[in-house]
Design a protein that fits this description.
Layout: E1 10-11, H1 14-21, H2 25-35, E2 52-53, H3 54-63, H4 75-127, H5 133-157
Antiparallel strand pairs: 1-2
Length: 169
């Protein structure tokens, strides 16, 4: 589906993990120690740097046992957990919609570039011009804009930019 197009999000510190789930650093550290939040330590030491995969955190939040948090004794905790789960579900839906829109944008951009190229070739034929410098320069300008758009999208979605689409000249 659309999530196949989105590179996994890697959270590289306690601060990023805490920000991702909307809690404090101490809270997520406690969740890791007490509740088994999926956090990895590349150096395999108890106090080394941590990383976590956003999709694993999402899955853990959806399936974390609620009884361990003392929900029976604290109704406000149950409410907070239900709100958090709704937020996670909404986040996943928005991420999927964003990936779909990004895919549609890339396809539309590719069609636009093909159409511009075809239009320039047809104008050259109609005018019978042998001098291809101006249309070629315009095409190169469109390619630069295209590359800048891909780079901007990559930055905003934390993805590596896709390689440029091969075009016939």
């Amino acid at each position: 589906m659309a999530e196949d197009h989105v590179a996994p999000i890697v959270l590289n510190s306690w601060k990023e993990i805490a920000s991702y789930v909307g809690r404090g650093v101490r809270t997520v550290q406690r969740w890791e120690a007490d509740l088994g939040m999926p956090v990895r330590r590349p150096r395999a030491k108890s106090r080394s740097a941590v990383i976590a995969m956003a999709d694993e955190i999402d899955k853990w939040l959806r399936s974390a046992p609620t009884a361990e948090v003392g929900i029976q004794h604290h109704p406000e905790t149950r409410t907070k957990i239900l709100e958090l789960r709704k937020s996670v579900a909404m986040h996943l839906d928005l991420r999927t919609r964003c990936a779909d829109l990004l895919h549609e944008h890339v396809e539309a951009r590719t069609r636009l570039m093909r159409n511009l190229h075809s239009l320039m070739l047809s104008v050259q034929k109609e005018e019978g011009t042998k001098d291809k410098a101006t249309p070629a320069a315009q095409l190169e300008m469109f390619r630069l804009v295209d590359r800048a758009t891909v780079a901007l999208i990559a930055v905003k979605t934390r993805r590596k930019p896709e390689p440029p689409v091969a075009r016939a000249v």
